[in-house]
User: Which sequence fits this backbone?
C-alpha cells in the first residue's frame, strides 16, 4: 500500500512524500491499484464509502471532510442547441467547498498527513490549491505554509490566508519553486501536497466515478463514447480522471474509455504542443501568457505521464485562444448561469473549436469565477448608475 | 393554490406578483399549505421530489435547476471544543451554485415566472440575490434587471452582470427602492422576485427539511431541542426556515419546534431592537452601519411577520458587535476551514454570545466569503513576500 509505482518503468518505490517522482524517468509516482476485487458500493451514501475500493483511505475520517464531491452534472440545453451538439453537459466542480476541484484531492492528502502523524502541510499554487489546502489543514488542525506566485490576485491570497495559513508570495521561477518546495519540506518536516501528489491524484478520481454513475454504463459501451474536456495545468487532474476510467475498465464496468480532451490556453500550452509534435517529452513553454492563470504552468510535472495516458486511451490535447476563452466564459454565464474562471472556460472553448462529437460532451468546470472577477470581459457587462428618482 | 394568505388577518388574496403584501397589515403574503396529506418522500433522489408535498411546484422542471440544495451539515468539532458546546453544526449554504442560500428561493420563483409565461425578472439586492437571480434567469432564458445599492462591491456586481443581467447601481434610499421596484415591475411586466417573495420563501424551506432529516426526528422530540442561528436581513430566509418546521410539526414529524435565534449586526438591528423592546412592529433603524452588508437592511419588509413567528415558536432575536463578527469569521475559517462572509459569521458570534445550549446548535452559513474578500480582517492574515533564493 505504501509503495508507489512509476508507469514508465513499472518499478515500485517506497513512499517518500518529499520526493514522489521516479528517480529514473522523473514521472510522478502513483499509488498502485488494490489487488482485491473492487466494486462501487452503490448502496453507500457518501462518496468515500461508495468508492472505498478505489481510494487509499483506510478508513476515511469524515471529521476531516468539508463535504466535497457529489457535484452536479448539468445538462447545458441552451448551449447544446446553439452548438448543435447532441448532448452537452457540465460537471460543476466549482461547487466544492472552496470553489474548485482541488478539494477532492486535498481531502485525501490531508487524511494521509494525519495518518502519518505529520503536523505541517504546504503547497505551491496559482491560487485554487492554496485556498483548498489551507481550508482542509484548518479543519484538521494542521499548520499550513503556502507559496504563491507574486502576481497572484488578492482574492486568492486572502482566501488562503483567512484559514490561518502562512502565505508567501515568491519572486522567481515557478518550476524551480516546485522543486525547491520539496527540499524545504524535507528539511522542515512539511508535507508539500503539490499538484501531482499521488494521494491528491487518487482523490481526483472520485469525479470520474460520479460521471460514470450519472451517465450509466451504457453510455460507455456503445458506438458513441462520451468526450470529456479537461483543463490541464500540471496534469494531475487529468491523470486522476483518466485513472478513474482505467479502474472502471479494469473491473469490467465499462467496455471502452471515454475520449479525453485535455485543453490548455494557447498562451501556455506545453503539453498540447508536445502532443501536436508527436513528442514523448514535454518541454518548457517559453514566455507563458494567458488570463487562464489557474492553468498557466509552463513546465508541468505530470506532462509526460498525461501525454502517455492520453495516447494510450485514444485521447487528445488541444489549445484555445484568449478571445475564445473570454467568449466561452461569457457563454457559460449568460446561457447556463455558470460563472466559472477562465481556466474552466477553456473546456467549452475547446468543444466549440472541435465541433460536436457523436456522443455526449462533458465539460469539467474546474473553478469558480468568484476568485477571478477582475478577468471578466468588461465589454460584455451591462452596468449603469442612476438616481432613484430617475428610474 | 394561486391565492396567498396573510398570517396577521388570515385573509386570502389573489396572487399579484407585483404586490405580494397584505393591503391591511403590510405583511408579506404567503402561500397556504396544501390541504392534502403531506409527507417527505424519503426514497426520492432530488430535493424537489423529496419535498414536493411542501413546495408550490407542479411539477419541478430540472432544466431550470443549477443543482442547488443538498448542502452539507458539518460538525464543527474544533469550535465546539473551544466553546464548550455539546454539539455545534454548520449548514453550509455557501455551497449553493452561486455561493449563497438565495439559490433555493430563486429556483422556485424562476420556475413560477416560466409557468406564468413571464419573460423578464428582476430583483433588488445587496449582492447575493443579484448574482443568484441573474444566474437562474440566464439558465431559464429570461431577461434580468438588477438594482443594487451604489456602494455594492465590484465582485458582487460583476457576479450578476456576467450572467447577462442589466445591473443598475441606484443612488437613494434602499427601502424606497424596494417599493419602487414593484411599481416598475407592474408597468414594464417584470417579475421582481425580491427578498420576501412568497415563492422565494417557500424555496428556503428546503434547508429546514434537510436539517430535520440530517438530525433525525428524535433530536426534535426530546428535552434538548436544537437551536438554529439564522442571520436576518429582510426576514424572508428566517420565515422560510421557520415555516419548514411548522410544516413538520403540523404533519406530526416533530413534537416541538427547534429554538430559532435570529441574528442581526448591532449596527443594523431593527428586528432585534423591536424584539428586545417587546414591540409588535419593526421600525426603521437609523444610520445603519455594519460590515455585514448582506444583512444590512434598515427597514425589513418581513420584520413584523418574522417577529410574530419567532415569538409564537419560542424563538428569539439577538444582535452582535462588529468586532465579534470579525472574530467569528476568522474562527470559522481558521478552525473549521469555512470561509464565509461577515453576514454568515453573525450566527457564530451569536452562539458565542449566548453560550452553549442544552442540545445541538446549528449555524446557518448563508454566503461565501469569496464575494467579500475586502472585508476580511487584515490583521489576522499572515502574508509575506520573499525571493526564491531566500526561502
Assistant:
Amino acid at each position: 500500500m505504501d509503495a508507489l509505482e512509476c508507469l514508465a518503468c513499472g518499478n515500485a518505490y517506497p513512499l517518500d512524500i518529499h520526493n514522489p517522482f521516479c528517480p529514473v524517468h522523473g514521472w510522478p509516482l502513483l499509488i498502485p491499484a488494490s489487488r482485491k476485487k473492487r466494486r462501487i458500493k452503490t448502496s453507500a451514501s457518501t462518496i468515500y464509502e461508495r468508492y472505498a475500493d478505489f481510494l487509499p483511505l483506510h478508513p476515511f475520517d469524515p471529521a476531516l471532510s468539508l463535504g466535497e464531491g457529489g457535484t452536479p452534472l448539468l445538462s447545458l440545453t441552451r448551449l447544446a442547441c446553439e452548438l448543435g451538439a447532441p448532448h452537452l453537459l457540465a460537471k460543476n466542480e466549482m461547487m466544492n467547498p472552496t470553489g474548485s476541484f482541488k478539494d477532492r484531492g486535498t481531502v485525501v492528502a490531508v487524511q494521509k498527513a494525519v495518518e502519518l502523524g505529520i503536523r505541517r502541510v504546504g503547497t505551491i499554487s496559482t491560487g485554487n490549491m492554496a485556498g483548498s489546502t489551507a481550508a482542509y489543514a484548518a479543519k484538521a488542525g494542521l499548520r499550513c505554509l503556502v507559496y504563491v506566485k507574486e502576481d497572484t490576485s488578492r482574492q486568492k491570497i486572502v482566501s488562503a490566508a483567512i484559514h490561518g495559513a502562512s502565505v508567501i508570495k515568491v519572486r522567481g521561477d515557478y518550476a524551480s519553486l516546485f522543486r525547491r518546495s520539496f527540499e524545504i519540506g524535507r528539511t522542515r518536516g512539511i508535507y508539500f501536497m503539490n499538484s501531482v501528489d499521488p494521494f491528491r491524484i487518487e482523490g481526483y478520481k472520485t469525479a470520474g466515478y460520479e460521471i460514470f454513475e450519472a451517465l450509466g454504463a451504457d453510455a460507455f459501451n456503445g458506438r458513441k463514447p462520451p468526450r470529456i474536456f479537461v483543463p490541464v495545468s500540471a496534469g494531475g487532474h487529468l491523470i486522476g480522471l483518466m485513472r478513474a476510467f482505467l479502474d472502471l475498465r479494469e473491473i469490467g464496468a465499462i467496455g471502452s474509455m471515454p475520449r479525453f480532451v485535455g485543453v490548455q490556453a494557447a498562451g501556455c500550452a506545453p503539453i498540447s504542443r508536445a502532443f501536436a509534435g508527436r513528442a514523448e517529452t514535454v518541454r518548457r513553454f517559453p514566455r507563458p501568457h494567458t488570463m487562464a492563470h489557474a492553468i498557466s504552468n509552463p513546465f508541468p510535472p505530470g506532462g509526460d505521464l498525461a501525454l502517455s495516458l492520453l495516447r494510450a486511451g485514444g485521447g487528445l490535447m488541444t489549445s484555445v485562444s484568449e478571445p475564445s476563452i473570454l467568449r466561452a466564459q461569457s457563454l457559460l454565464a449568460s446561457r447556463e448561469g455558470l460563472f466559472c474562471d477562465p481556466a474552466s472556460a477553456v473546456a467549452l472553448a475547446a468543444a466549440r473549436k472541435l465541433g460536436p462529437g457523436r456522443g455526449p460532451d462533458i465539460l469539467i468546470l474546474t473553478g469558480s469565477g468568484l476568485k477571478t472577477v477582475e478577468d471578466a470581459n468588461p465589454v460584455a457587462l451591462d452596468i449603469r448608475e442612476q438616481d432613484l428618482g430617475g428610474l
User: Anything to note?
Assistant: Chain A has a mean pLDDT of 95. The two ends of chain A are 67 Å apart (CA to CA). Residues 85 and 188 of chain A are 52 Å apart (CA to CA).
